[in-house]
Amino acid sequence: MDKISIIVPAYNEEEVLPIFDYEVTKVLKSMEVDYEIIYVDDGSHDGTLSILKVFAEKDSDHKKYISFSRNFGKESAMFAGFVNCSGDYAAVMDADMQDPPALLPEMYEKLKGGDYDCAATRRYTRKGEPPVRSFLAHRFYHLINKISDANMVDGARDFRLMRREMVDAVIAMDEYNRFSKGIFGWVGFRTLWIPYENVERAAGRSKWSLWELFKYALDGIVNFSQTPLHMVSSLGIFMTLFSFVMIIVIIIRQLVFHNSVAGWTSMVCVMLLIGGIQILCLGIMGQYISKIYMESKNRPHYIANESNIKDIKKIR
Question: HEC states along the chain?
Fold first, then answer.
């Protein structure tokens, strides 16, 4: 039988984990497959790890867990799951039940046909989500598809079922600064998109604030696009040419009309504008330099403190 690996990053999800585990196990048992569920405890401070250990004790053949030494972030948790999974197919799912387990049989059947390498999900509505958050999300997907070569579908979720070949390709992209939505699009492969209506959390609360989402979006743009650097270069050229033109205009006014530009207020405004542009440009370049700096350190993506997986890759 085919084996499906379900990778579940979990950070302070003690309230919803029993609900998720019951539902996803029920669905997997109804499918004619072998399976494993790999829970990755991302340095939780609540009872998440204790619950995962109970799952593993009750069904050690199918329930696995990895516990990080601290919070490394969802991207690292997903990567740890990919590295340590053994299935012919692998899926990433959130524990909050916003990724419906009921879609798994359909996704698996689509991949078994051989026409696709990945069955991915996208929300065609954002019902229940704050309007500002929905608006910003739509603008982000529009922007990143315009300025990068990562094919990202509006409303795309991390929830997708992939063949082993695609999983290996994702693992091969061993960069420290990870943005999985972009990586999934960049590696290519034949992807079938399955739309579904937005589902609210079954319990608990989201760990993603607007600020966290902004930083995540910024990481995606920096990781998969050089357009901000091109814009900075173009702006620098424009400002230089504009300055030369204005110098010529001022000289002509003084020589012909004996009327140089007067007023310190306008001068201060121009200086503040140019200074602000310079700081903005330095900030954009600093983002790219910081990514290079972190990559050059060659730090591990995660450090696993404990697990019930035999031959686990504890550091990668």
Answer: CCEEEEEEEECCCCCCHHHHHHHHHHHHHHCCCEEEEEEEECCCCCCHHHHHHHHHHHCCCCEEEEEECCCCCHHHHHHHHHHHCCCCEEEECCCCCCCCHHHHHHHHHHHHCCCCCEEEEEECCCCCCCHHHHHHHHHHHHHHHHHCCCCCCCCEEEEEEEEHHHHHHHHHCCCCCCCHHHHHHHCCCCEEEEEECCCCCCCCCCCCCHHHHHHHHHHHHHHHCCHHHHHHHHHHHHHHHHHHHHHHHHHHHHHHHCCCCCCHHHHHHHHHHHHHHHHHHHHHHHHHHHHHHHHHHCCCCCEEEEECCCCCCCEC
